[in-house]
Amino acid sequence: MKKEHDGLTFQRGDAVAIAAVVTAALVMIALLLIPSGGNGRVIARIYQDGEVIRELRLEENTEITVEGAYRNTISVRDGKIAFTHSDCPGEDCVHSGWISAPGRSAVCLPNRVEIRLEGEADTDDVDAVVQ
Amino acid sequence: MRRKLTLAVLFLIMTLLLCTGCQAREKKRYQASYLTLFDTVTTILGYEEDQDIFSAEAARIHDQMEAYDHLYDIYHEYPDLVNLCTVNRHPGETFTVDQRIIDLLKLAREADEFSGHRTNAMFGAVLRIWHEVREEGIEDPESARLPELSELEAAAGHTGFEYLEMDEAARTVRLTDPEASLDVGALAKGYAVQKVCETLPEGYLLSVGGNVVATGPKPDGSAWTVGVQDPDAAGEAYIHKLSISRGSVVTSGDYQRRYTVDGVQYHHIIDPETLFPGTKWRAVTVIAQDSGLADALSTSLFLMDQEEGQRLLDQTGSEAMWIGKDGTQAFSPGYKAYIKP
To answer: Are B35 and A14 an interchain contact pair (Cβ–Cβ within 8 Å)?
Structure first.
C-alpha cells in the first residue's frame, strides 16, 4: 500500500515551485534596481517653439544648424553640447557654455531654441541654476 | 497538501506583483519649459502620477505667468488690457487696474522703503535711458555708447514714489509727473513666480530666468539641488550647490544683461547714487522664503555694503552670499547651512 503523503516530505514539485518563486523574486528585484533610463545615457532634445525638432546622442560628435529668426550652430563634442555659433544679438546662447548633465538646458531666446538634456538624473545633479 | 503549496506560491507571486505595482504608481519627474514669458526662460520641474496631470498643471502655470507678464510689461501694450506700459505712456491719466498690479506696487513701495531706494520701481525715467542704449549697443556693437551723465541727472529728478498716486480701494493708479515712469524689473518676475507657486502642490520647482522657487520637497522627502553659477565660468561650473526644500533663491550679478562700450562691459543694475551700474559686488545670491522679496533683496544687496545688506537680511529672516570684485566670498550667518556637502 502506498504511503499517504503527509505534506512534510519534500517532493519534486515543491522544488520547482520554490525555484519559480525565487527566480520571480530575483527578476523583480533586478527590474527595480536597474534605472529605467539606463545608466549615463543622455539624449539632447532640440526644441524650437516648444516642439522637438532634433534628437542628438552625446556619444557622437556632430554639428547641426537650426534656422529660425536667426541661425544657430549646435555642436556635440566629447559628451558635451553647446551653441557654438549664433547670429542673434548678444549671443547669450553661445556664452552660456557647454552642458552634459541630464536636466540641464541651454537656450537661444531670440531664435526660440532650447537644447534640453534628458535622461535619468543623479542625486548629485542640479535641478536648477541661479546665475 | 499539494494544492496548499500551489496556493502559497500563487500568493507569493501576487504579492510580488503588487509591490511592482506600487512602484509604477509612484510619482514621476516631469519637465516643461517656455521661452516666451518675462523675456526669459521658464523651467517647470514637477513630480506627478502621469504626463497628462503634469502637462495640465504646466499649462495652468504658463497661463498664470503669462497673465502676470502682460500686466507687468512696461515695453508692450496688449489689446483690451491696461498694464504698466499703458500707465507709463499716459502720465497724468488715472487708470483702473487689475488687483495684481496694485499688489505688486504695494510690494514695490515697501521694497523702495526698506532698501533706501536701491530697489525703486519709480526709477523708470533713468532706467529707460540705460535700456535704450543697451538695446542699441547689443543690436549694433560697433556704435555702442554710454548715456550722457547730464541726461541721467535730469531724469533722476523724476524718480520716486512721490510721483505715483495709488488708490488701493478704488484700484486706480496715476503718474503725477510727465517724465516719471514705472520699472518693475527688479521684482515683477520674482513676485509673479511666488504668487503662482502659492497655487501649486508640493514637489514643484520653478525657475523663471534664475528666480528659483521650490514649493516643497520631492516625493521621497529629499530637497531640490540648486547650483550657484560661477560668474567666471560658463557651462556647468558651480560655486556650490544649495539644498532647498521650500523657498526661493535668486542671484543678481554684474554679468547679467550687459553690453560692451569700448571694450568695457556695463550691466543692468543701476546704482541710484551714481546713476551708473553698481560696482560694489560681482554677484549676490539671496535665499528667502518669498521669491518677490528675494528678488528685491538681491538687487538691493548688490548695491549696498555687506553690513547694510545684513541688516536687511536680519529684518526679513533671509540669507545671502556676496562675491566681491576680487572673487572673495562673504556669507550671512545662516547661509552655509544650505550648502550641499
So the answer is: no
